[in-house]
Structures are given as C-alpha cells and as structure tokens.
Amino acid sequence: MAAAVTAPPAGYLDDAADAGLLHHRAGLPYVAGVCTDVIGGERQYLIEYLDPALLAADPALDWLAAQAGAAQPAVDVLLLRTDSATAPGAPWERHLSYLRFVGPAGPPPAAVRVHAAGPEHDTLVRDWLVEAMTESAAERRRTGDPADLRALADTMLAQPGRRSYLAVHEGRTIGHLTLCPDRHDDVTGRRYTELTDVFVAPAELRRTAITALIAATVAALPAGELCIGQVAHPLSEVDPDKGGRILSVLLATGWAHDHTFWRRTP
C-alpha cells in the first residue's frame, strides 16, 4: 500500500503549528517553510504536506509559487511532497522519488560478491558518499563545498546502527550500499530503515551490482521491516532520463513507488 498523505498522523499538524509551519488556504491545511539544502546551498520552500483538495483545485499551485517568490531572502526552488499516486501539473518536475522494498529482489548474480564493510573501509565509503553528493549537486547546477560534503559523509558514517556493504567483482571493490535504521517519517508516522546510498562506479556493472547488493542486504532484513530509499532526478535540462534509468533498475529488483518530491521555480 502506498504512503498516502491524505490524513497525517495525530499530532502532526499540531507540531507543525507549534513550529510556525502550519498554514491554511480556503480553510484547508498545508505545512511549509524555508530551508537550505545542505549539499548545494539551495534555498528551498518545502511543502511537506498539502491537503489534496488544494492540489486538485490548482494542479500548478501558482499561488504557492507566488507566495514563495515573496520570501526574503529569496528562495531558489519550491519542493512539494505527494503520495505515489498524485502528481502536480506543469511546470513541476520530479526531484526525488522515494521507493519502498516489497520484494522479491531476485537471485543474486554470481559475478558479484557482497560482504559487510568494516571500519577499515570507512574512507572508501566516505569517498563514494562524497562523489555521489557532488554528482547530485552538479545535476542541479549547484556546487557543494568539498569540506562540507566530507563532514556530511562523516555524519552519515557515524549514524547509530549504520551498516555498509561492499560489492566485489573479479577481486575489485566496485561499489557500496549503506543502510541506516530507525528513521521516522513525520508525515506518515512510520518508522523505517533507510537505504542511505547505493553507488556503483562502473556503469556497465551497475544493474548487476545493485541487484547483488539488494539481494544480500535489503532482502535479508527481518520480515515486516520497512526499508525506504530514494532516487534523485537531475534537472530536465541536465539529464531528463537518468532518474528514470535508475528507477527502472530498482523497480525490477523488488522496489515500489512510495512518495515523491516535485520541484519548480517561484
């Protein structure tokens, strides 16, 4: 079942009101505020929850764009969360696709071996995390400060319960998958394990290695444990198809759409 946001959990709107983030239009609630992206420094007007009737009445949400455009200092982009069955109209485009693992992952490819990473692999995993974040920022025409990205990667590695796994092909380590447990989704009230990052360097081995990593890790989680990961979509003028290509790999290895973040300029 998809993670619909038509009815947030008890207390969610009260907590948003306490934080000064709850607003109303035509008597209907939405939760929004300005934040700064830690990777590229982008100032974002984040709409974490929007009553579905507001989107149905104006799929482009031009009134929200006008409201965000009046913010000072100016914001660079609006981000809107919807459930997997809901999409805003143009000019919104996909920003992040969140997926949940439903299985099965399929048989692990014999060509790739997966093993748990140890502390001696932290530098390697950190370098891959930084590379992934640098690439993600560039795909949005942003530049992340290398020192900030390294510090953010170190924070990820220090998360309680963090587990990383390495993919090895013909004796060469080619990628990793990192899981962080005990995450909480405020909008739906769910607890879950996060697939924080999966990164495979050789493009020709990406599908094979990702399949092997998922089969050996996510698919082996205890029954009933929810696992959610995300796919970042580059700006359409940078690469309109990359996000779709990655989604096709994951959707073929046991994942399903959960919710989406959309973006547009004010």
List keywords for this structure.
alpha+beta; Aminopeptidase; eleven-stranded mixed β-sheet; 34% strand
Lay out the secondary structure.
Elements: H1 12-18, E1 22-25, E2 28-36, E3 43-50, H2 52-57, H3 62-69, E4 77-83, E5 93-101, E6 112-116, H4 122-138, H5 146-157, E7 163-169, E8 172-185, E9 190-200, H6 206-216, E10 227-232, H7 242-251, E11 255-264
Parallel strand pairs: 3-4, 9-10
Antiparallel strand pairs: 1-2, 2-3, 4-11, 5-10, 5-11, 6-7, 7-8, 8-9
Helix pairs in contact: 4-5
Q: Which architecture of the largest domain does the CATH hierarchy give at level 2?
A: 3-Layer(aba) Sandwich
Strand order of the largest sheet: 1-2-3-4-11-5-10-9-8-7-6
Order of helices and strands: HEEEHHEEEHHEEEHEHE
Give the rounded overall mean pLDDT: 92
Structural Rg: 19 Å
Q: Assess the beta-strand content as a share of residues.
A: 25-35%
Q: Can you tell me the residue ranges where pLDDT is under 50 for at least 5 consecutive residues?
A: none
CATH superfamily of the largest domain: Gcn5-related N-acetyltransferase (GNAT)
The helix content is 25-40%
Task: Report the span from N to C terminus.
Answer: 33 Å
The figure for the number of domains is 2
Q: What's the total number of strands?
A: 11
The class by helix and strand makeup works out as alpha+beta
Name the shape in a single word: globular
Top-tier CATH class of the largest domain:
Alpha Beta
What fold name goes in the CATH topology slot of the largest domain?
Answer: Aminopeptidase
Question: How is the biggest beta sheet arranged?
Answer: 11 strands, mixed
| Count of helical regions | 7
